[in-house]
Sequence to fold (746 residues):
Amino acid sequence: MTDKPQPPQRTAETATDPERTRKVAAAGDSTAAGTDDSQTQGTGAEGAEAFLEGRESLRGATGPYFGAYGGRWMPESLIAALDELEDTFEKACADPDFVAEVADLNRNYSGRPSLLTEAKRFSEHACGARIFLKREDLNHTGSHKINNVLGQALLAKRMGKTRLIAETGAGQHGVASATAAALMGMECVVYMGAEDTRRQALNVARMELLGAKVIPVAHGSQTLKDAINEALRDWVANVDHTHYLLGTAAGAHPFPAMVRFFHEVIGDEARGQILEQTGALPDAVCACIGGGSNAIGIFHAFLDDKDVEIFGFEAGGDGVETGRHAASITLGRPGVLHGARSYLMQDEDGQTVESHSISAGLDYPGVGPEHSYLADIGRVTYEPITDAEAMDSFQLLCRTEGIIPAIESAHALAGALKVARRWDEAGHTGAGRPVNEAIIIVNLSGRGDKDVATAAEWFDLLETEKVDSKTVTEGEDK
Amino acid sequence: MSGAVDSGQTSKSAAAIDRARNAGRSALIGYLPAGYPDVARSIDAAVALADNGVDLIEIGVPYSDPVMDGPVIQDATVEALANGFRVSQLFDVVAGITARTDVPVVVMTYWNPVMRLGVDEFARRLAEAGGAGLITPDLIPDEAAEWMEVSDKYGLDRIFLVAPSSSPERLHRTVEASRGFVYAVSIMGVTGARSKVSSAAHKVVDDTHAAGAKRVCVGLGVSTAEHVREIAAYADGVIVGTALVAALRDGGVGAVGQLAKELSAGLA
Fold:
């Protein structure tokens, strides 16, 4: 640990202005006082209108801008590398060999297509709606992250780069990056907040087993955003032979559109699978949002299906009213961080506010720019889910389906139950269909093995052990 | 936009570089963060730069995510923020310096604090405080439409960066968009002292001149009088940051003045 001075714990501004209050109100059961529903949302009303009138497809947005979001707010030193990446990506997309190579890796290495599992016992808690789980947890390395790292690593090879760098919070993206690097014979360096390397020592070991070097970041707030800062500093210095394998659908163009592209397979599969299994499109699609890569991956296939409601669930942490959360869209304001203009948790000076979530994968103060756009035009509804709500659903899925979800994904599960309850109260789905005929797809973005220690602590399972041993001791006393 | 770089008459930083040029030398530009170690001493330290041969003062805005800065400047700005530095105090620092010296002050800032306050409001207050313009490490001309407009409105310099990786097209575009001078990054990397000057620096300066820039100043990795002398042979100005911040950290305002004197001797 460093004994250097740490930045103060800046808390998010409270919801006082109309714009912010409106967004909180739109987020559902917020506790923020006062609402102002008279104003229409955001800057993208025109985009929403065009969409609703069926004039415009929301699929396949290429960037660099998504409405007023996205772009390249980056040092000039990196622009040439971003141009090279954009060019390589565009050519690769049009190259049948590349597309076939990705498809082959997806099938024969990652294990795609991932299953779509109907969660029948879990659905008993969903007011009659049927919940289907898109099983990204069954992919190699245990989450959706593998889709993106394989694609980007292939692009890196095409560019003649020999070294991959990545940031990681809990370690999922770091492990996936280390995996891709090992598979393709590339050097890999993973930046991880010093705090996170201690909390996730096992994941550090996993990355090292895979041949990656893990560098703890002791500057700034020592969390995911600082790991990204440090990775960017490395990239500036080594860009001639290094590719920055960004792990989420954020960052400077072309990252948001490119990362989405590699994850679109999630939604494409799910859409086909639900049609095959039920003969219908779902009434709702739910996913959790940190930077938003798994979400944009599953949303994309459904963006033009007007009767499909789409929900993104942000990390509400201790509750959005406490300031300790990671609900960038719900409570953030537009700003630039890590290369893109997007909703951002920031104080009134534009300093990034530290996010808080029980889920390390959602613990990021920004969000991908396409999500900001989809929020503004009203195509996707973004709402916060608290740590407690997520953990209740985490436990429920464990006990009803025999599936331990990632805590990130548990936010989407909790959100799905909330949507079903809301429909139930209204007497119908958002599209006016009976709730007992409704279908919800939840993107189960990852498995929860990595979260067992956190869950054990949350549910006092370790405490129970102590109580048991105490009981035994007492017994011996007698 | 064209010819903006030539309009030295309306540019305080161009005028400062031209004064040095007329004296037969390159300009010395010294960087220090606002509010480090506190507001009063950051003003004193900047004035010490001016008193010891620095031609142009660069004041950095402490920011939570400084991706172009190495450990020394990061630690200084983190400390400034930990001590409660607010963006409004930036304007106090600039006004405090310009009240005590005629050496012009440009502000180096990452873009989000500007965006958050409002580009117009930020520019208005900077101009009011006597500031000369902005150096924008994470704002490229492609994204700078609003800043182009506002900087014209308040007569502020807009100092964009060029790098060894910049294509000829980008060099040309950045030179066109800049006013005052163009900031040439000497190496592919972040701020911080290095033992020698990168060979890439000379080429990027020549290429930027060839793209039409009248004033090109070199920063990143410049820390000794020897570096300053070496770069001054081909650049219009030399920017020193990390070494001055380290001097302030280790020896206070006096050490900053002492180092500035040594560095400027490299230009004599």
